[in-house]
Amino acid sequence: MERGIRVTKSVDISDLAGFRAKAAQWLAETAPEHGWLKTPDGSRRRVGAGDHEAVERNRECQRLLFEAGFAGISWPTEYGGQGLSLREQIVFNEEAGAYDLPLVVYIIGLGMCGPTILAAGTEEQKRRYIEPMLRGDEVWCQLFSEPGAGSDVAGLSSKAVLDGDEWVLNGQKVWTSGAHHCEFGIVLARTDVNVPKHKGLTMFILDLRSAGVTVRPIRQIDGGEHFNEVFFDDVRIPAENVLGGVGRGWQTATTTLMNERVSLGAVRPMDDVHSAQALIDLAAEQGLSADESIRARLADLWMRESVVGLLGKRITATILSGRQPGPEGSVAKLVRTDYSNRAAEFGFALAGAAGAAWREGAPQGDSFVNTLLFVPTLSVAGGTDEVLKNIIGERVLGLPKEPQVDRDVPFSELKDR
Three-state SS for 185? Predict the structure, then answer.
């Protein structure tokens, strides 16, 4: 498909005002035509295992962004990006925040997998995978966690063995978001059991349509199925699909996880239905604004949301200065998760009976109960709260590390393996 006018040809890189105007005009003209307007309650639809129509809307949205020159704004032009700076990306995100762009299926690919390939991939890998990702042709996921290796990712057991010019992968992953509608993923596997656990890992680019890959959606408490179990039975991966080098999987995975925590903690906009202002408005609608205890909780949430915003701005400033975010990504993710849980609980309480039973077509519908059931997953996704607190304690507060008796022991000698 031929691409449309590229932003780089019509907007000077230093002309942020011109770029903002162009983005605002395109969104204003395109969003109503394609139904990218926010619902009255500001809620966002999550994509489930069988939601083919929603996935196709995501693909169409990403394709239109690509053709208009608003995909990969800060990514290199030789791989399909626009070659601009993160300033332009931030400006576009600010303008897009007023709309409900259906892009949820691309969060992991563009927020985690793509940056990892750009940082650690070969030239051939970048040219093969980045542009189709930006164009929306191929959706990606990341496959790290296992039933016995969640918080301790380095303790994973999925194994890949070299057989000629292919690696043979066996094992299981779990909690893989979006795998049921993905074409590709980045998978972490053990390729050497005779070295300590952090040193025997390798990352691969995996075609999820390969023989031996089985994806099974997991039904969650909110009724959704956006997590999955993924099984590998003698899956053959070409040697050229090694990402970042054999035995360097932990270093490559660290790049992915840093991007994930920044994305979850600072980049993704707050869900409008549980913003502090939305809860203030809801309290007024319920006639509770004069209640001192309600006012105190609203003030507390407003302050916490402000902290989340300030942390996001700090991370943005770090990125714009040319530096990689450090532990502040973990801080932002932890604080945001705490706010989301508090806001969801309080919003449900404010909604009263409407949070548990509602008339069909009601403005807020089931958003309160669904959000209340969904937010506990945020304490696990992208690193559990406990893991993030350890990172903050060690890297921010300078506290001593927890004892690790298995760090220098070959994986094959660990007693629980």
Answer: strand
